[in-house]
Amino acid sequence: MASIIEQINSFAQNNKELVILDFTHGLNTDSWTDESSALTQQEWERLLNLLGGLKNRITGLGSIAYLTTLKLSQLINNRAAVIIVVDAKIQGGGRVDISRFVSQGLFTRKQFPLYNVYSDTNDQSDMIVDQLQKMKTYAAPSSSSLFLLSWTFTQGITAAHRPER
To answer: Distance between CA 146 and CA 69 in Å, rounded?
Structure first.
């Protein structure tokens, strides 16, 4: 994670761009049992503390209803801007509690609404048709929600690809 933060900081130092980090899943691969090995609240907090090392985080907007209603020029003003969105389940159920971190530039899905549904296929033609249809259906110009065109191939998990128990 330190290397990723360093690379984002390096990019942001040299580019006046908006960087959005969208955390929707967190799995503990060190103690993996199956796909439900979600991070605990404490593990998420360790990660969120590390993200404090990201420079150019957007702060001071904790009370804003929707970040997606802001103009890009309001976010990027002679420097890069980093938005961190956290919306993930924790081990045992529930969602990650980021309340301790809102003043540090972390936002909820409610503040950064985003439609992001992949196609669940490894067939390129099916993925293209599916994603373009979703874009026509969900990317309304009047919506405060963003639409993410998800060009992600999904490989099936077979017994040969499952982690050892």
So the answer is: 10
